[in-house]
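Lab notebook, design round three. We kept the backbone fixed and only want residue identities now. Task for the bench partner: fill in a sequence for the structure below.
Input C-alpha cells:
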C-alpha cells in the first residue's frame, strides 16, 4: 500500500506542470500556500453585515374542543357539530432579510411577514429594531420593511443585473436557517429561469445548490463581487423536516428592484401588463411555424386597445424575445414585461409569416375599465349574500383569470347566505341570469328585479360553464 501511494504521488508531481500549463488556462491546481488558503472570508465580511434576522409574531385563531369530545364515541354522534370555543394564541416565525438602503430599507419574503402583528429585525451586530411594513406583494413573494436608524447609515447590498449571471458561477447564501443565527453556505448557480416552482405568481427563479433551509427565506444570494443576485425564497425538499437537498430558489434581483422602486415612490406595486393571452411554443408548433426549435409564446388573443395591440402584436405572432432577452415560455414573458418600469419602451422580437419582425412595446399597467362597482347582492334571490364586481383586465390580473377580461365576477360569498347555500364560490363568473346575458353589475340588478317562479343561473368556473336551476 505504501509503495502504491508513493507511485501515485510520483505520477501527480510528474503531471503537475502539464496541469498548470494546460491550454484551458483557468483550471489549474494550487501552486502555493497562498492559493491553498484562498477563502470566501473577504466577501462574507463585506456582505454579511447587510443581512438581517427577522422574527415575527402572529395571532392564530383555533377552536378548543374538550378532550372528552375527542372520543370516537362522541364524534360518531356529534361529528362536525363539535365546534368548541374559539381561542387565540401567539404564533412565532423567523426568516431573513437584506438591507438595500442605508436608511434602513429592508427586503424580505412576503411569506415571512404575512399576517404578522409584530416584526422584529436583528442586525448582524445583534442590535434589535421594530420594523414597519411598507409594501408586501404576494404575487412576487416580496415585502419591504423600514426600520428607524435615527440617521445612522447601515451597510447595504447593491443589486446586480441578474440577467448577467451564468450557470456555474459561484454564489453564497446568507441567512438564518432554523433560527441558529447568521449562516453562510456556498455553491454555484445551478440553473436559470426556473418557471415551475409554484411559490409565487411571477415564476422566474435562480436555482442554486448552496444550502438553503427554513429560516433562510428572505436572505441574500450574493455573487463573488459582493452584489445581491437574488432573495432566497424556496427549497425543494424530499424529506418531511424540510431540509435542504441542494435545490434552492431565489427571486432575481431584477424583480426585486421593481418592488423596491414602488416602495420608495410610495405607491402600490403596479406592474406592466402584456395585454395578450398566449401559449408555450412546443416542438410540434415550432415545426408548423417554421422555427427550428421550441421556445417562445404563441399569441392566441390580444386585448383591444391594450399595449400589445398598440404595439402591433396580432394573434398568431410568436414572441421570441423582449429587449434582446429570450422568452422561453409564458412565465418568462410575464417576468420580462413585469420588470419594465411603467412608461418605458422596449423592443419585442416577433416571428410572423416565417420571418422575424420587431415592434416597440410601451410598458403599461392593466386598465381598470370598467370600474369594479363592487357591491353585495341583497334580497331573497339565490344570489343574495354574494359580493360581485365588474371584471376588467386589472381585476383579471389580480385574480389570475387569464383572458377573462369582461363580465361580472363573484369576489366573495357571505357564509350561510342563499348564495352560499347554492354553492356559489369566489371567482365564479356570472354568464347568464334567467336567459339574460350578464356583462355588467347593472345587468345583474335588472335581472334580479324581475319576478320569476324559478332561477336559471349560468356561471363559468375554472374554465367550464355550469348551470344552476333553483325554484322559489
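Proposed sequence:
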Amino acid at each position: 500500500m505504501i509503495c502504491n501511494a508513493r507511485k501515485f504521488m510520483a505520477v501527480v508531481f510528474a503531471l503537475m506542470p502539464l496541469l498548470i500549463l494546460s491550454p484551458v488556462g483557468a483550471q489549474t491546481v494550487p501552486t502555493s500556500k497562498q492559493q491553498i488558503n484562498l477563502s470566501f472570508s473577504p466577501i462574507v465580511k463585506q456582505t454579511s453585515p447587510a443581512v438581517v434576522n427577522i422574527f415575527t409574531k402572529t395571532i392564530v385563531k383555533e377552536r378548543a374542543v374538550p378532550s372528552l369530545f375527542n372520543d370516537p364515541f362522541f364524534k360518531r354522534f356529534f361529528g362536525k357539530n363539535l365546534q368548541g370555543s374559539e381561542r387565540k394564541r401567539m404564533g412565532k416565525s423567523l426568516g431573513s432579510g437584506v438591507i438595500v438602503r442605508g436608511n434602513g430599507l429592508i427586503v424580505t419574503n412576503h411569506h415571512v411577514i404575512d399576517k404578522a402583528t409584530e416584526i422584529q429585525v436583528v442586525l448582524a451586530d445583534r442590535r434589535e429594531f421594530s420594523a414597519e411594513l411598507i409594501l408586501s406583494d404576494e404575487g412576487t413573494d416580496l415585502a419591504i420593511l423600514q426600520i428607524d436608524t435615527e440617521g445612522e447609515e447601515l451597510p447595504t447590498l447593491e443589486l446586480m443585473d441578474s440577467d448577467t449571471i451564468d450557470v456555474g458561477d459561484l454564489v453564497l447564501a446568507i441567512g438564518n436557517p432554523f433560527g441558529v443565527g447568521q449562516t453562510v453556505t456556498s455553491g454555484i448557480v445551478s440553473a436559470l429561469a426556473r418557471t415551475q416552482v409554484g411559490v409565487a405568481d411571477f415564476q422566474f427563479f435562480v436555482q442554486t445548490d448552496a444550502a438553503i433551509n427554513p429560516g433562510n427565506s428572505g436572505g441574500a444570494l450574493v455573487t463573488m463581487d459582493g452584489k445581491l443576485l437574488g432573495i432566497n425564497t424556496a427549497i425543494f425538499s424530499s424529506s418531511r423536516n424540510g431540509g435542504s437537498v441542494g435545490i434552492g430558489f431565489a427571486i432575481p434581483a431584477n424583480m426585486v428592484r421593481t418592488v423596491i422602486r414602488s416602495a420608495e415612490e410610495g405607491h402600490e406595486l403596479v406592474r406592466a401588463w402584456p395585454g395578450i393571452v398566449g401559449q408555450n411554443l412546443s416542438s410540434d408548433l415550432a415545426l408548423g411555424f417554421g422555427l427550428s426549435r421550441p421556445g417562445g409564446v404563441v399569441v392566441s388573443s390580444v386585448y383591444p386597445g391594450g399595449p400589445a395591440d398598440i404595439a402591433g402584436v396580432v394573434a398568431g405572432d410568436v414572441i421570441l424575445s423582449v429587449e434582446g432577452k429570450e422568452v422561453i415560455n409564458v412565465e418568462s414573458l410575464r417576468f420580462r414585461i413585469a420588470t419594465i418600469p411603467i412608461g418605458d419602451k422596449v423592443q419585442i422580437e416577433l416571428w410572423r409569416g416565417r420571418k422575424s419582425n420587431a415592434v416597440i412595446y410601451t410598458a403599461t399597467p392593466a386598465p381598470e375599465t370598467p370600474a369594479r362597482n363592487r357591491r353585495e347582492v341583497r334580497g331573497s334571490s339565490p344570489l343574495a349574500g354574494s359580493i360581485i364586481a365588474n371584471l376588467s383586465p386589472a381585476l383579471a390580473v389580480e385574480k389570475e383569470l387569464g383572458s377573462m377580461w369582461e363580465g361580472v365576477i363573484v369576489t366573495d360569498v357571505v357564509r350561510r347566505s342563499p348564495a352560499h347555500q347554492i354553492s356559489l364560490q369566489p371567482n365564479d363568473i356570472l354568464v347568464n341570469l334567467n336567459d339574460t346575458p350578464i356583462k355588467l353589475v347593472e345587468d345583474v340588478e335588472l335581472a334580479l328585479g324581475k319576478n320569476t317562479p324559478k332561477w336559471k343561473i349560468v356561471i363559468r368556473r375554472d374554465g367550464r360553464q355550469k348551470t344552476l336551476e333553483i325554484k322559489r
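Keep this in mind before ordering anything: Confidence is low (pLDDT under 50) at residues 1-5, 7-22, 73-77.
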